[in-house]
Amino acid sequence: MNKRGVDGSAGDADYGAIGGGYAEHRRPDERIAARIDEALGLSRTVVNVGAGTGSYEAADREVTAVEPSAAMRAQRPARLPAAVDAVAENLPFGDDTFDAAMATFSVHQWNDCAAGLREMRRVARGPVVVLTCDPDLVREFWLYEYAPAVLDTEARRHPSIETVARTLGGQVSVRPVPIPADCTDGFNEAYYARPERLLDPRARQACSAWSFVDAERRERYTEALRRDLESGAWDRRHGALRQQPSLLGSLVLIRAIPS
Q: Cα angle at 81 between 75 and 87, to 5 degrees?
């Protein structure tokens, strides 16, 4: 049984409290979208599980969005259809209803990730496409020097790539996704070359892992980053990243098709 708060959020993060800026800061990046689109192939009907504000829903496909958080559903653009209020672990659709299923930055939010993945596999005839982070790589990002508890939280929440692949079954491919230096989707690693952006509390709020750290520690982490940016210490250690067009970090795209 999923425990859902007043907002309807079904995982461990309260999007009624932190989700207000997602539409502003978590805008889909067209280069990441192109990789998702390629993975979906010729699929016409797609279910987007944990759809949030509608990021990465292609206009040329028939997308059915599933999102338990009222705050996130309310931020969906008017051009997109309303999302179904349901959780990943209990999708209200019959077997093989859709050509494909997708989830972007979502599987780590679910109460029972394996159950949600099995539901995606059940309702999709073809590919299941999951954009997620490899927890084994999360702590390699420079932010770990400043906000270790935030990235420890990210690593803890994300399922292992092996778990996702094994649960989905079939023929599975796992591909790293380059993160552009000017990425419009504001997850933590998207700011690898723009560290100043993480001084903005709304940008941090749009990365749910920050909400698991108490306010005093968040402030301490942010001030340490601010000091190093002002003194030039960050640039002395990591400044070359400002000229790097993309980063191969923890972001991966998993695609599973039935055997």
A: 75
pLDDT tens for residues 69-127?
A: 988 898 899 999 999 999 999 999 999 999 999 999 999 999 999 999 999 999 999 99
E-strand ranges in the chain read: 45-49, 62-66, 100-104, 128-133, 171-176, 179-180, 246-247, 251-257
Q: Tokens representing 230? A: 């002002």
Q: Are strands 45-49 and 246-247 parallel, antiparallel or unpaired?
A: unpaired
Cα 209 to Cα 120, 159, 248, distances in angstroms: 24, 14, 20
What are the respective helix, strand and coil percentages of the chain, to the nearest 5?
45, 15, 40
User: What is residue 69's three-state secondary structure?
Assistant: coil
> What is the b/e burial string over 190-222, where b = at least 16 CB atoms within 10 angstroms of the residue's CB?
bbbbebeebeeeebbbbbbbbbbbeeeebeebb
Give how far Cα 232 sits from Cα of 146, 196, 204, 229, 238, Å: 15, 12, 22, 5, 10
pTM above 0.70, yes or no: yes
